[in-house]
Amino acid sequence: MTAKARPTSTRPAARDQQLAHIRTVYGPEKEALGALALEIERMA
């Protein structure tokens, strides 16, 4: 997800800082499950 999205559009920090923060929230057992990212586009 961080490879596709601009870092500042998801969280105003460098990519490495974002990953470090995410890993404090989701431990290795959760990271091993993988990720699902949804893109939502406003229609109106």
Describe this structure as you would to a colleague.
Helix content is 43%, strand content 0%. It contains three helices and no strands. The longest helix is centred in the middle third of the chain and has 11 residues, at 15-25. It is flat, with a radius of gyration of 12 Å. The N and C termini lie far apart (25 Å). The model has no long low-confidence stretch (mean pLDDT 75).
Over all CA atoms, what is the radius of gyration?
Answer: 12 Å
- The gross shape turns out to be flat
Portion in helices? 40-55%
- The computed structural class is mainly alpha
Mind describing the biggest β-sheet? none
Q: Count the helices. How many?
A: 3
In N-to-C order, the SSE pattern is HHH
- What distance lies between the first and last C-alpha atoms, to the nearest angstrom? 25 Å
Number of strands: 0
Can you tell me the residue ranges where pLDDT is under 50 for at least 5 consecutive residues? Answer: none
Primary descriptors:
44 residues, mainly alpha, 3 helices, flat
Write the layout of secondary structure elements.
Blueprint: H1 7-10, H2 15-25, H3 28-31
Could you give a short description of this structure?
The protein is mostly helical.
